[in-house]
Amino acid sequence: MPQSYRDLEIFILAKELAAKVHKMTLEKLPKFEMYEEGSQIRRSSKSIVSNIAEGFGRRRYKNEFVQFLTYAVASCDETKVHLELLYETGSLQKDIFEELIHRYEELFAKLFNFREAVIKNHRT
């Protein structure tokens, strides 16, 4: 197990994507979406990162670690829904949507597999 959450591949990827989403909402969305859906997707994408970090801080306690990883997985799903809504309402360009949804699907798979590994192999 890494010494810091910063060493986890899922944290690195989630943080990179949260920064990308943050910038995208400020630079690419129509002004009216910046405060509505833009605010929601910024929060959900950053929630993934913070739940990974908080869960890692509680890694000594399997149930808490798994709980925070589950929150991260759920926030990843939420972020994908926000991306889909932005795209389907015409507020997000197809190329940006396709790149981000693909990256979030990749992150989801990694988060899910990491959580499953913790459930199966955790030792205090």
Structure explained in plain terms:
The protein is mainly α and 124 residues long. The protein has one domain (7-121): de novo design (two linked rop proteins) (Up-down Bundle), CATH 1.20.1440. 81% of the residues lie in helices and 0% in strands. It contains five helices and no strands. It has helices at residues 9-27, 31-35, 37-57, 62-88, 94-121. α3 runs antiparallel to α4. The protein starts with 8 loop residues before the first helix and ends with a helix.
Report the portion of residues in β strands: under 5%
- Binned, the helix content reads over 70%
Radius of gyration: 15 Å
What overall form do the CA principal axes indicate? elongated
Shape-level CATH architecture: Up-down Bundle
Number of domains: 1
SSE pattern: HHHHH
Secondary structure layout:
Blueprint: H1 9-27, H2 31-35, H3 37-57, H4 62-88, H5 94-121
What structural keywords apply?
elongated; 5 helices; mainly alpha; de novo design (two linked rop proteins); 124 residues; single chain
Summarize the structure.
It is built from 5 helices and no strands. It is mostly helical and 124 residues long.
